[in-house]
Amino acid sequence: MDSTGHSPQSLTWKENKWIRFLVTCVIAVLGGFFFQLIHMPIPWLLGSMVFVLIGSKLWRGISFYWPAQIRNTGMIIIGYTLGLSFTASTLVQIGQQLPTMILFTALLLLCAGGIAFVVSKISGIPYPTILMGSIPGGLSQMVSLAEEMKSIDLTVVTFLQVSRLIMIMFSVPLLIFSPLFHVTGSHSAAISDAAGASGYAALFPHIWLFAAVCILLAVVGQKIKFPTAFLLGPMIGTILLNLSGYEGHSLPPLVLEFSQLMMGSYIGLLLKPENLKNKVKIVLLALLNGVALIGCSIILSLLLEQLHDITLATSFLSLSPGGMDQMAFIAKEVNGDLSVITSYQLFRTLFIFFAVPPLLRLIFRSMLMGKERAH
Questions:
Q1: Residue 36: inside a domain
Q2: Distance CA 281, CA 165 (A)
Q3: What is the CATH number of the domain that holds 226?
Q4: Does residue 43 sit within a domain?
Q5: Structural domain harbouring 353
């Protein structure tokens, strides 16, 4: 026995990565089955996420484990699926909508900035910290940037970003299936029928070429620090192969459900509320921030629907302040236009990656100089 009352054998068992992964996997699968049983949207993403999140907090005896490589594999599968939706005609349509993409991305970011200002005034937390926690769709970029700046509370930024993603994944499917969006049923059955008709055999032999290119571009993208490389690399590779004349086929439903579980389990372990100071206050601020941002997205999507010949569901998913991968899952459920949704989400991701960090540095520098002059 050691000082904690555990034998060395039990400690070894609980620290074994394979055992920890197996326990996490079982909990995630149970969550997927349960959410499917109660007819929740995207059950394998939401179910695995919720069960792993709750299980990891309740079961203190073992530390849950989910390798990043599995999450990355799930993102490669999603990237391939997104890439299949792009054809030469959709690229022309995207070119025509480019001015609208710029306008609505700017409007959404301005809304995020305004909401962050109000939340900062209410909470007393410095504006730069709230702002970096409010930028939609930029979790990895904002956390990396926050690490560079000593005055910013990294824990608060991470919590705001991750809690917004979790709110989006729950609220967006429920909103999409509400009377507001006039979606009467899930499109999952149609997807299953289409994929089942072609089956696994239709994937071959081209799937080997698509797999090799997707993996290669994911690894290269990571090396050159491309944003969400394991999603965008495979997507770009699939688009290029499609335009070159190679025909890619939709993956079977089982593979897509598996990719949801790969993503959901990883996200479920991201949120660590035990690291927060003033937990209740920060949780309430995160809820306020998330609800306000979703409200702004709905208003902007109503405007986008009027400007272009797209459904309200497609416009909302295009502007929703979540991740491209989660929006793609929901888009498949409601028969949304994947190419339009992905284009808007991709443009915002790239804009946040390349343009927002220098802009934020400029804003924060100006604020700092203003404070120095005031003193």
A1: no
A2: 19
A3: 1.20.1530
A4: no
A5: 66-374
DSSP labels, 66-81 = --HHHHHHHHHHHHHH
Find tokens 């990883």 and name the residue: 266
So what's the pLDDT on residue 51? 93
Say which residue, 61 or 312, is predicted with more confidence: 312
Closest CA to 157 of 135, 185, 137: 135
**What's the domain count of the chain?**
1
pLDDT tens-digit map of 160-219: 887 887 788 778 888 887 777 766 554 444 334 444 444 667 677 778 999 999 999 999
The number of CA neighbours under 13 Å toward the Cβ of 363 is: 12
Concatenating the DSSP letter of every residue in 315-373 gives: HHHHH-SS-HHHHHHHHHHHT--HHHHHHHHHHHHHHHHHTHHHHHHHHHHHHHHHHHH
8 A C-beta contact, residue 202 and residue 251: no
- Contact indicator for 253, 195 with CB cutoff of 8 Å: yes
Residue with token string 């609800």: 291
SS3 content of the chain, % helix, strand, coil (to 5): 80, 0, 20
